[in-house]
Amino acid sequence: MSMFLDTAKIQVKAGNGGDGMVAFRREKYVPNGGPWGGDGGRGGNVVFVVDEGLRTLMDFRYNRHFKAQSGEKGMTKGMHGRGAEDLIVRVPQGTTVRDAETGKVLTDLVENGQEFIVARGGRGGRGNIRFATPKNPAPEISENGEPGQERELLLELKVLADVGLVGFPSVGKSTLLSVITAAKPKIGAYHFTTIVPNLGMVRTQSGESFAVADLPGLIEGASQGVGLGTQFLRHIERTRVILHVIDMSASEGRDPYEDYLAINKELESYNLRLMERPQIIVANKMDMPDSAENLKVFKEKLAANYDEFAELPQIFPISSLTKQGLSTLLDATAALLDKTPEFLLYDESEMEEEAYYGFDEEAPAFEISRDDDATWVLSGDKLEKLFNMTNFDRDEAVMKFARQLRGMGVDEALRARGAKDGDLVRIGKFEFEFVD
């Protein structure tokens, strides 16, 4: 069984803020000491950090839930609770993070040490020292801590390579990688020898270097889930140059030109932007009989079916076995890399807008619906946050929450919807009677 894992779905939960405290000074010689309850501490964030030592998402196979610590509660003597430490989650280079609910890309983590907060901790609730006023110098009001952000994430690993080797199974991609780099991929005389992407570093005779990825063989229909190709096509998205390896000996009984068209069709079907990457055609196995004649026919078909205004891709005849033509191929690949910019993986429509952790002023403060049992149900981010941060153990806090609801227009909206005295109103699991 392969130990390479390049996708994962996980749950992250940032820490809640600590609750504020209700306390009063009761020292012998301090009359009317007043409120003395401190604020709660901030909840911990969940932070992804890139670790170049990781190669797969295997760590997320069995550990799918990540929860940061909550902040400490406020204390007496006006002391604030300690803020929680952030939860650091290490991910490999090339990890793309998506929100599972919206499908939007949150971040693309490619630099070693790069950090990104995927879930923010809640702020601490205020203690009663914060609510003292001339009219109410001894308030019995405090806030609960703000809940930490909770979300489900999709992680995708796309290997960091400058050059990607593509082609049908058994065309010699793994052998080519093994002779141009120090990588030791599995090589066998059967299809799908390579079942995970292999990486290697190439250094040309002129001293230039680049990373090459040997991707598992594609077959016709790979972009629709046939074979292994659909699992690993994502890894070619980061590459800037594609080396299209073709078996010119036709040892599998296929036509080299038809192979070329079929693989390009799969790349195009998976992602149109893959066809923007420049390709070099690698005519492999030129040491075999009939390869020279097949190459001649291939060039004729390619020229005949190519747009007369388009530039034909470069073709390099090689033999991985005899190492014929390799230095010329590598020099041409390095030269093409020098003039090929990096490709933007995601456009603006795929990226989540920069996170804003306040309230959307244009969004309604609350919504009213009716449950099957005739209970009125109140919902909405702003209203639910006020509810979660209200300490219902204190009568003053409950009255404050009731005033906030009235100020938001909840009473009038319920009355307009037909709510009558004694009707049940629900916020989350909390129910109370509507008083007209």
Summarize this, please?
By secondary structure, the chain is α/β, with parallel strands linked by helices. It contains nine helices and 18 strands.
Description:
The chain is an alpha/beta fold and 436 residues long. It is 20% helix and 21% strand. It has 9 helices and 18 strands. It has helices spanning 59-62, 173-180, 229-232, 256-270, 291-304, 326-338, 381-388, 395-408, 410-416, and strands spanning 7-13, 46-50, 65-67, 87-91, 95-99, 105-109, 115-119, 150-157, 163-166, 198-203, 209-214, 241-247, 279-284, 314-317, 367-370, 376-379, 424-427, 430-433. It has a 6-stranded mixed beta sheet, with helices on both faces. The longest helix has 15 residues, at 256-270. The relative contact order is 0.11. Residues 188-195 and 355-359 have low confidence and may be disordered.
